[in-house]
Amino acid sequence: MDTLAAKKRCEAATPEPWETHQEGDGFNSVRICKPISDGECQPVGEAEILGTIRAQAEANADFIAHARSDLPAALEALEEAQGRIAELENALRAAQTYVKAVRPTVGESE
């Protein structure tokens, strides 16, 4: 995964929260919202965001198109990093246990 390219796509996409919305005809769409209290999302009116949508449509489409591969790759990298962190924490605990066990005897050999 090209993390720099994925990060640029995230930064270029519309920053407000997005949510899916089912239209009356059963068609699902994505709408851009303003965050309000309690994690709720208030859709932004078309007149308010029309210029932004046109200006960022390509960036948003690029973000959406790559999301299916970017997110799984990012999650896999996160899992690998978390696994490596766990390994290092175990090694550190083992080293600390060893140091505690050896420390009292270090001065005796001198």
Overall description:
The chain is of the alpha+beta class and 110 residues long. The model has no long low-confidence stretch (mean pLDDT 78). Helices cover 65% and strands 15% of the residues. The chain has one domain (3-81).
> Number of helical runs?
2
Sequence of secondary-structure elements: HEEEH
Rg measurement, Å: 25 Å
What is the structural class?
Answer: alpha+beta
Percent helix among the residues? 55-70%
First-residue to last-residue Cα separation: 54 Å
Q: Output mean pLDDT.
A: 78
| Uncertain regions spanning at least 5 consecutive residues | none
- Range of strand content: 5-15%
Strands ordered across the widest β-sheet: 1-2-3
Largest sheet: 3 strands, antiparallel
Report the principal-axis shape. elongated
How many discrete domains? 1
Please count the beta strands (DSSP E, at least 2 residues each). Answer: 3
Question: Mind sketching the topology for me?
Answer:
Layout: H1 3-12, E1 18-22, E2 28-35, E3 41-43, H2 46-106
Antiparallel strand pairs: 1-2, 2-3
Helix pairs in contact: 1-2
